[in-house]
Design a protein that fits this description.
By secondary structure, this protein is of the alpha/beta class. It has a single domain, classed as Ribonuclease H-like superfamily/Ribonuclease H (Nucleotidyltransferase, domain 5), CATH 3.30.420. Helices cover 36% and strands 21% of the residues. The chain is built from 5 helices and 6 strands, in the order βββαβαβαααβ. The protein has a 6-stranded mixed β-sheet, with helices on both faces. Helix 4 packs across helix 5. The radius of gyration is 16 Å and the shape is globular.
Amino acid sequence: MSLPLKVTTKRQRPILDFDIENRPLTYAGKDFTFGEVTAIAASFGPYEDMHCWLLGVDDPVVMLKEFTEFYNQAYMVTGHYIRKHDLPIINGAMLEYGLAPLGAKLTCDTYLDLVKIQGVSKSQENLSSMLGIEASKVGMSQMSWRSANRLEPGGLRKTEARVTGDVRQHQALRVKLIEQGMLTPPRVWSPRRAAS
């Protein structure tokens, strides 16, 4: 299902921009790992409050339930590669903790909904840099990731800065891509069918 693409205003139904961070938790052969959600950040707009939940600070069930409340309020959710990464990983956590899955939702995925391009990276960081977006991605060294994945206080601070920074950068990126006509119409994501 596709709907016309447009930037919403505060008077229209809310759009939730979100991002997650996750850590490898178990191995499934070779180098494939199953992940665990370590952080979720979400905001209803670039000038709206940012909400962030961190594993190691927040109870995982509370984190998932509170995020779901935001998700259910939204007319549409948006992020970078959310239909094949963030949303399925969150639903995996919902299953593990005995919670109902996220429901179907209209999505704008700035990776999967980008018009066909070649010769440039489709990463959020690269697209934002290319389009002159001032909000930068918070870099993480290997040692920073180790500290973050061990849920150490310093690592958690970096995780929070990264996940919330990604949401703010993404909010600006999405607006710029829409202005330039670089996104195809939003699509409904459903946990009951393959993501596209």
